[in-house]
Amino acid sequence: MKKALIIGGYGTIGSAVTEALKESYDVITAGRTQGDVHVDMNSIKSIKEMFETVGKVDAVIFTAGAAYFGPLEGMTPENNLISISGKLLGQVNTVLLGTEYVNDNGSFTLVTGIMMDDPIYQGASAAMANGGVRAFAKSAALELPRGIRINTVSPNVLEESWDNYQELFVGFNPVPVAKVANAFVKSVQGLQTGESYEVY
Ligand SMILES: NC(=O)c1ccc[n+]([C@@H]2O[C@H](COP(=O)([O-])OP(=O)(O)OC[C@H]3O[C@@H](n4cnc5c(N)ncnc54)[C@H](OP(=O)(O)O)[C@@H]3O)[C@@H](O)[C@H]2O)c1
To answer: What's the average model confidence in pLDDT over 96-125?
Structure first.
């Protein structure tokens, strides 16, 4: 059976992606505190150790990546670094270090988010990271070797997360996590590359 590594596989989105893929893939979950292997995407050493432990896989899927939410007025470079080192570099570095571990014709699927296209109050730092991830993947798709594909999924706020985020996302229409998981399935099992799947 093909192997899929899901970083953040125990989270809200990651659990749904694991469920959606488990019939077709041997799913390996990774996280800082939970999962089959432990990894902190913010650490290059930890990313390297994860790939050495897991070995070759057919799909690397990201459903993790911290971002800073806060008003632009008063936002410090240190605050903003949370999104840069978490959501942006965490995913990009894992692609850079993980490409040699992806089998021919395998794939990467990264996660972004709606606020890069539909801005919200306190969302500038997260939007910056999301836009960077999308632009990186679109460009990297041209150069990845051996038929390896790369796409991103941009979820709207989830119905399952609505209680936590509704004050930030006034007037948004939340989407069910199963719909977002299906975009990951399309990326992993389809043929497209360089795409951003917007589940809005
Ligand atoms: N929920 C939403 O409405 C929504 C909407 C749009 C976009 N997104 C984006 O989708 C992603 C996942 O969201 P979610 O709601 O599913 O999050 P979640 O429920 O908090 O799950 C995140 C998962 O990632 C792992 N994780 C966090 N930081 C990590 C790190 N540095 N290294 C490795 N694993 C890490 C966590 O496990 P450990 O704590 O064990 O590490 C957890 O399993 C996030 O980037 C979020 O911005 C979410």
So the answer is: 98
Per CATH, the homologous superfamily of domain 2-199 is NAD(P)-binding Rossmann-like Domain (3.40.50.720)
CB of 42 shorter than 6 A to ligand 1: yes
Looking at ligand 1, which atom is closest to the CA of residue 65? 45
Atom of ligand 1 nearest to the CA of 35: 40
- The structural domains of the chain, with segments of one domain joined by +, span 2-199
Instruction: Supply the pLDDT for residue 84.
Output: 98
What is the predicted pLDDT for the residue at 165?
Answer: 94
Give the separation between CA 104 and CA 171, rounded to whole angstroms: 43
Separation of alpha carbons 113 and 107, rounded Å: 20
98, 131, 163, 73: CA torsion to nearest 10: 120
Partners of 109 in the β-ladder: 61, 151
Cα separation, 35 vs 8, whole angstroms: 8
Measured from the CA of 15, which atom of ligand 1 is nearest? 16
pTM: 0.98
Is residue 66 very low, low, confident or very high in pLDDT (cuts 50, 70, 90)? Answer: very high
How far apart, in whole angstroms, are the C-alpha atoms of residue 200 and residue 188? 19
Could you tell me the distance, in angstroms and rounded to a whole number, from the CA of residue 87 to the centre of ligand 1?
Answer: 9
Of 13, 88, 122, 133, the residue with max ligand 1 atoms within 8 A of its CB, to mutate for a pocket test, comes to 13
pLDDT score recorded for residue 70:
97
Q: Which residue has the tokens 């992806």?
A: 102
